[in-house]
Design goal:
OB fold (Dihydrolipoamide Acetyltransferase, E2P), 5-stranded mixed β-barrel, 29% helix
């Protein structure tokens, strides 16, 4: 029996490159899922850990930059002038109570600003003497921006706690995220009013840790299958 003619070398090379390319794609997908599993685990730790040490805001975050994961939930302090006031409807606190919050834009220095959750919207008149000329010292917990709208944007209303929704109303360089104020003072005088409690934190990465690891196994198994099939076909042909 005459053996089948050998395939041209170019064809074999093309098939080899295709197999290796497909396997490399599956391996890279597995690495991607592994990175997401690692990031998810880290974000869950960050979301449930609060560092009680108070640090200057500009020491852990900068305007016009994404909020670093290590800065989430940190207790920060900063000073500036309140230059705008917004109502943030349908916000949920740590107890799951939904209410409207008072959120102000704090101008820091001459060119930067950050959103500050000061309390319930209904309590905003408890400090009627605050003016834009007053330098307010703010202490609070730094949070990542919200991803989903809680209402619609309108005059004096923001749909979510995110500096992106007010970029068209100010020339300031805005910090990512927002501060939930635990204290405000002017010239050492504490401004007393009821405060909102921080919202429950959750990972910003969808899925579960073991789910991502299972995807790693699946993608790498598929890479192994792709590499093994040509060898299996050779054995069958022989």
């Amino acid at each position: 029996m005459t053996p089948p003619a050998s395939k041209p070398l170019a064809s074999k090379l093309a098939q080899g490159v295709a197999v290796i390319s497909i396997a490399a794609i599956f391996v890279s997908l597995g690495i991607w899922q592994l990175d997401r599993a690692r990031a998810l685990k880290e974000s869950l730790v960050v979301a449930t850990t609060i560092d009680k040490n108070i640090v200057p805001l500009d020491s852990i975050s900068q305007p016009r930059e994404s909020l670093p994961p290590a800065a989430m939930n940190r207790m920060v302090k900063t000073s500036g002038h309140y230059v705008a006031d917004f109502k943030a409807p349908h916000q949920s606190d740590s107890q799951g109570v939904v209410s409207d919050w008072q959120v102000s834009l704090l101008q820091i220095g001459t060119s930067s600003g950050i959103l500050v959750v000061r309390g319930l919207w209904a309590d905003r008149l408890l400090n009627p003497d605050i003016s834009q000329s007053m330098v307010i010292d703010v202490t609070g917990q730094l949070h990542a921006r919200q991803d989903s709208d809680q209402s619609e944007n309108s005059a004096g209303v923001i749909s979510r706690l995110d500096s992106a929704v007010i970029v068209g109303t100010t020339d300031l360089d805005l910090f990512d995220g927002y501060i939930i104020a635990t204290g405000e003072s002017h010239r050492g005088q504490e401004l007393l009013r009821p405060r909102t409690t921080p919202e429950k934190q959750s990972s910003r990465i969808p899925g579960f840790y073991w789910q991502h690891l299972s995807y790693v196994v699946i993608w790498w198994l598929m890479a192994g299958v792709v590499l093994y099939l040509p060898l299996y076909r050779r054995k069958v042909d022989l």
